[in-house]
Design brief:
There is one protein chain. This protein has 223 residues and is mainly α. It has one domain. The protein is built from ten helices and no strands. The protein has helices spanning 3-13, 22-44, 46-63, 75-93, 97-107, 115-133, 139-148, 158-168, 185-207, 209-219.
């Protein structure tokens, strides 16, 4: 078979570069194990996360009920709504910091022959690292500070926090599209197990939208 025929046959199946080398297979296996451990840890903490967020709602109801009463719905209220979300996410993530740190350590040195896949994984790991380093904001103090100015000026830290949080906010677990090309059959099975656990986390996030609404109501804050 001539070289042109070989190239055409390759193109008709998968991109030639997608054929996994032993090094790519080993890297993929290491990544999938690290990612699975991260997701499994997050999934195992669903009930503690739910309890933490109920406790957060109750604490805000005790410490600063109606702190934003009569406030306008504007760009400032939107910023504080984002701070509510950040407070919830970071309060929940505090329960799983060791798993997040272990994931980042395990994957930051991984390299594939695909530069785009390597960059995607490293970008996600950087987001996980930045998110885990953020401090939980003092939500009640910030809303009260805004109210004390007649709802004209946000606390100095609110916008920087929102920017840092929103640029780093990711859920536990990441299976980039390009990874599948390098998976063996056994690795593909692990990826499917990971996807099942990721769905449990996604379902939790959907349920907690109601908690966000309850906290907003406790504060009387418009999004």
């Amino acid at each position: 078979m001539g070289i042109c025929a070989v190239l055409l046959a390759c193109a008709s199946l998968l991109p030639c570069g997608a054929v996994a080398s032993p090094a790519d297979s080993a890297t993929t296996g290491a990544y999938l194990q690290a990612n699975f451990a991260f997701v499994q840890s997050a999934s195992a903490r669903i009930r503690p996360v739910e309890a933490t967020l109920r406790s957060l709602q109750q604490r805000i109801g005790r410490e600063c009920p109606k702190a934003a009463q009569s406030s306008p719905q504007d760009t400032n209220s939107e910023q504080l709504s984002n701070e509510v979300i950040g407070t919830m996410v970071l309060s929940a993530d505090r329960l799983d910091l060791p798993a997040a740190h272990a994931y980042v350590r395990a994957v930051r040195g991984l390299r594939w022959s695909s530069g785009s896949l390597t960059r995607a994984v490293h970008s996600y790991a950087a987001q996980v690292s930045r998110l885990s380093a953020l401090a939980v904001p003092k939500l009640c103090s910030d809303v009260r500070s805004w109210a004390s100015t007649g709802f004209q000026a946000l606390p100095a830290g609110t916008r920087p926090f929102d920017s840092a949080f929103l640029s780093s906010w990711v859920a536990a677990g990441y299976l980039p599209a390009g990874l599948a090309s390098f998976e063996t059959a056994a690795q593909r099975s692990l990826a499917r197990r990971t996807e099942h656990l990721e769905q449990e986390i996604t379902d939790l996030e959907a349920r907690e939208v109601s908690t966000w609404g309850n906290i907003m109501n406790e504060l009387e804050l418009e999004p």
